Amino acid sequence: MKAIASTCALSVGLALAASSVSASAWAQQHPVTTQQQATAQQVAQKGVPLSALASNAPDSYTVRKGDTLWRISGMFLRQPWRWPELWGMNLQAIANPHLIYPGQTLYLERTNGYARLRTTRGGTAETIKLSPRVRTDSTNDLALPTLQMHLIEPFLAEPLVVEELTLAQAPRLIATSDERLFMSPGDEVYARGPEGMPLVLTGEGQNMYRIFRTATPLVDPVSKEVLGYEAQYVGKAELRVEEAPAANQPAAEGSTDNAPIRYTPATLHIAHVKEEVRANDRLLPEPPRQYHSFVPHAPAEDVEARVVGLYTSNAMRYGTQHQVVSINKGEQDGMQPGMVLSLITQGQQLVDRTDPERATVQLPDQANGTGMVFRVFDRVSYVLVMDTRRGVQVGDRLHNPQ
């Protein structure tokens, strides 16, 4: 089904500094789109079939602090990302699905085989009760986020898929001021650029660098082709003093006028670490801060993807809810941020021990939950595991949600 179910008004507005953005400000920056509005209006004519409701959908629910739109829609519908069908049940009362507040009560009405969601019961207007205290924010600032933003915020900067030589040719950390093996927040450290490309201040006030380690090849589990190299994020540093030609350079024996210029290393300040930073880690410029808006939706075309890897610093075999996995489809395959995909566990092969000949049998594939694409590179994408029944592992399939 690719009509109503293929579009979702869950707009996940996320920034690299998302915690500083109020819900009302985010809603203003990400208004409901024309397509979302049209989907909701289509559903609003009748409501949704009762078959689309979750088996244990409540008759009413009072929104609480800490709720998310994804969680609330999952209470009422079988598929949480099909928000327009929930929102479209009552366009008049819920003019913008991003502005639902703690204290509101949602009522589920079932009539003639269809269901609608209302914020009133029996035509009586609902009053949102707020505690009587001095407030410095408006009720808009209480609006619910679509997801728990901290789940995805770090991964907007951390995973990086690069070409094989990108890190090898990037500036590198060489030492701390006191020659310690590991570098910590607050440490003064030194770095050098590649030959002929000294590390210099930009003059634009943007001198933050992300620190990465060895790039790991991402291998397609089907074709065995290397799709890219995943750089391991370990921290962040600020460039304070750029590389400069060394003063009073001693002339090398047998040197000529064309001898390479010697540079004193650049000085940086370690601002943040995720893991221990050490010599030979590489520096890449911090990208400008930007807002990322995701509209969860089913792909318009058929998708058949495989899990390439688990984005984690630990040697884990299985991914779980709210973890990130990489898949073997990217921008050139039509992948877009916000695409919702079903996770499928690949059936294992096992020996039938009840068979005298010990025949090998193939177990069937099994549905295993939902994931949402949130970051796309040329041939690789990253997916946030929204829910899962069992562990996700390399080789598992992803396809259009049913």
Overview of the structural elements:
- This protein is mainly beta.
- It folds into 3 domains: 4-128 and 137-153, no CATH class; 158-247 and 261-285, no CATH class; 298-399, Beta Barrel (Thrombin, subunit H).
- It is 8% helix and 33% strand.
- It is built from 4 helices and 25 strands.
Features:
single chain, 402 residues, mainly beta, Thrombin, subunit H, 7-stranded antiparallel beta sheet, 6-stranded antiparallel β-barrel, 4 helices, 25 strands, 8% helix, 33% strand, globular, disordered N terminus
Helical content (DSSP H or I, runs of 4+)? under 10%
Strand content: 25-35%
Low-confidence stretches: 1-31, 123-141
Largest sheet: 7 strands, antiparallel
Mean pLDDT: 76
Cα-atom radius of gyration: 26 Å
Sketch the topology as an H/E string, one letter per element: EHHEEHHEEEEEEEEEEEEEEEEEEEEEE
Count, helices: 4
* Tally of discrete structural domains: 3
Distance between the termini: 7 Å
Q: Count the strands?
A: 25
What structural class results from the helix and strand content? mainly beta
Shape: globular
